[in-house]
Design goal:
It comes from Smittium simulii. GO terms for molecular function: 1,3-beta-glucanosyltransferase activity. By secondary structure, the protein is α/β, with parallel strands linked by helices. The protein folds into two domains: 300 residues, TIM Barrel (Alpha-Beta Barrel); 133 residues, Methane Monooxygenase Hydroxylase, Chain G, domain 1 (Up-down Bundle). Helices cover 28% and strands 13% of the residues. The chain has 13 helices and 17 strands. The strands form five sheets. Strands 3-4-5-6-7-8-9-10 form an eight-stranded parallel β-barrel. α2 runs parallel beside α3 and α4 crosses α5. The protein is globular and about 75 Å long. 49% of the residues are buried.
């Protein structure tokens, strides 16, 4: 036997032939090879019980659990799992392979507990964007990644609607980053279906002239179908389906599975994959696989244990999925005439000017800004108490200094030129503005608990030049925000105006249109047929020919 043949056999034994690439055309998912419509028969997957590192959860870095769970998830009839939290620094090869070997795709939330847009104090800042890029880099090499979710239930009531602007900016920048790197993964959003903001949310994430800022798919976390007596109409699923019937991008139930009655009959899945909803919805994710403190699981298992107990609902869900067979269309026969939504206008319930978005973060702009300051936090000073730093920043900006360059007002669509900088950089800007307001008195650059430096001749003489620095995608900046303070501050802030939390202290709730773009995001209405999966398929065929 030739050495090349031996090597090829070894390669086949250790490498998985890629799953077919799933693409979007209009409001539907399709298998790029067969052309068949693809319905997500999904399951939320986030094993937590007994996790030795609960602050850095990553179920896709636990090969024992993945190899244990993947065959069982396949047994259920599930073809896609949604994973909420992962750590980009870990090795995911074995877990991703385990799911691929069982024909299972991955839908990944980009955010994590320590790296997310905070709904109560939102910001899309340099460190957060870096974390999102790291997540994309970690998973873009895998063929069975079906897409990314940029935010989960971030704006969940009228008060938190300003956060939607920052999630949409994140979608834009992640899509631009993917496009620059010639990667074709869709990026979407998952909402909590709050009735008071349901309509503006679904409109906002699918409106505007900039295609890169619009979501590629939209999810609704829906728990209104409760118990065996509920129906398509009594649950309100009929009204939700009607709202989305003309939506121009795919719609999913990004979570479902009300636990008001146990065991759950999962009758909503029959409608989801049947004639009630399959013409509008592309499937969904039942919540969830493992039994945790919230009691939604269908199996009981402890982290890394080889022993797993199927609960009563495992077989019920399996039975329901085995009996559904949604009728789809062929990609070549499908053309959508659905249009994008009209953008919502600012109101008491919607505190966002839809035509303006936060700028793409720019590390170079922030570094330049700091180099222009006569008073700043010392370079070697580390903020060990973010709450104290945030309180100091708030005090300066609410009492003496107009902090427009590091603030925003989503209802007016105004975003300061440096509002995307991190907490240390923004606090340095505020300290310098206060220092200048007080006549550059050296004592005004001294703050208890914070090490500061005075510079008589800053290396950057004109702070306005900093705003033009290229952004963190490597593109020319279109930053037109305010770069300087215009004196003392005597006015109060509105609810939608904030200095925002801007460093890794954002340990929040969520896992979350201006100008032409030189690198257009992928057009999912014209899917590329030659994909990663075809390349992998070709390699597998060549390998087989080599053997035989």
């Amino acid at each position: 036997m030739k050495l090349s043949t031996v090597f090829t056999i070894y390669s086949l034994a250790t490498t998985t032939c890629a799953l077919d690439k799933i693409v979007i055309k209009g409001s539907k998912f399709f298998n790029s090879i067969s052309g068949d419509q693809f319905f997500i028969k999904g399951l939320a997957y986030q094993p937590e019980k007994g996790d030795p590192t609960p602050a850095k959860q990553d179920p896709l870095a636990n090969p024992l659990a993945c190899e244990r769970d993947a065959p069982l998830i396949k047994e259920l009839g599930v073809n896609t799992i949604r994973v909420y939290q992962t750590d980009s620094s870990n090795d995911h090869d074995d877990c991703v392979k385990a799911f691929a070997d069982n024909g299972i795709y991955l839908m990944l939330d980009i955010a994590s507990a320590s790296m997310a847009i905070d709904r109560d104090d939102p910001s899309w800042y340099v460190d957060l964007f870096a974390g999102y890029r790291n997540k994309i880099d970690a998973f873009a090499k895998y063929d069975n990644v079906i897409g990314f979710i940029a935010g989960n239930e971030v704006a969940n009531n009228e008060k938190t609607t300003p956060s939607a602007a920052f999630v949409k900016a994140a979608i834009r920048d992640v899509k631009e980053y993917l496009a620059k790197n010639k990667l074709d993964f869709p990026v979407g959003y998952a909402s909590n279906d709050e009735p008071t903001i349901r309509d503006p949310l679904m409109d906002y994430f699918n409106c505007g002239d900039d295609a890169s800022a619009r979501a590629d798919f939209y999810g609704a976390n829906l728990y209104s179908w409760c118990g065996s007596k509920a129906t398509f109409s009594s649950s309100g699923y009929d009204k939700i389906t009607e709202k989305f019937k003309d939506y121009s991008i795919p719609v999913l139930l990004s979570e479902y599975g009300c636990i008001a009655e146990r065991p759950r009959p999962f009758n909503e899945a029959k409608s989801l994959y049947g004639s009630d909803m399959s013409a509008t919805f592309s499937g969904g994710f039942m919540y969830m696989f493992t039994e945790e403190e919230n009691n939604y699981g269908i199996v009981d298992v402890t982290y890394s244990s080889s022993e797993l107990k199927k609960l009563e609902e495992f077989d019920i869900f399996k039975n329901v999925l085995s009996k559904v067979s949604p009728t789809g269309v062929k990609m070549k026969d499908y053309n959508s005439s659905n249009k994008i939504q009209s953008c919502p206008s600012p109101s008491e319930a919607w505190k966002v000017k839809s035509t303006e978005l936060p700028q793409t973060p720019s590390t170079k702009a922030c570094e330049c800004m700091v180099e222009s300051l006569g008073c700043a936090l010392s370079k070697d000073f580390t903020i060990e108490n973010p709450k104290a730093a945030q309180a100091l920043l708030k005090d300066i900006c609410s009492s003496s200094v107009k902090c427009d360059p590091i603030e925003y007002d989503t209802s007016k669509g105004t975003y300061g030129a440096f509002q995307f900088c991190n907490l240390k950089e923004k606090l340095s800007w505020a300290l310098n503005a206060q220092y200048e307001l007080k006549g550059k008195n050296a004592d005004s650059c001294t703050v208890d608990g914070f090490n500061t430096d005075l510079k008589k001749s800053p290396s950057v003489s004109d702070i306005s030049t900093c705003a033009t620095k290229e952004n963190d995608i490597g593109m020319k900046s279109s930053n037109t925000g305010s770069t300087s303070s215009s004196g003392s501050k005597n006015t109060s802030k509105s609810d939608s105006k904030n200095t925002s939390k801007s460093d890794s202290e954002n340990t929040s709730n969520s896992s979350s249109d201006s100008g032409s773009k030189s690198n257009a995001a992928p057009n999912y209405n014209s899917p590329s047929i030659f994909s990663h999966s075809m390349a992998g398929f070709a390699i597998c065929i060549v390998a087989l020919v080599t053997i035989y």
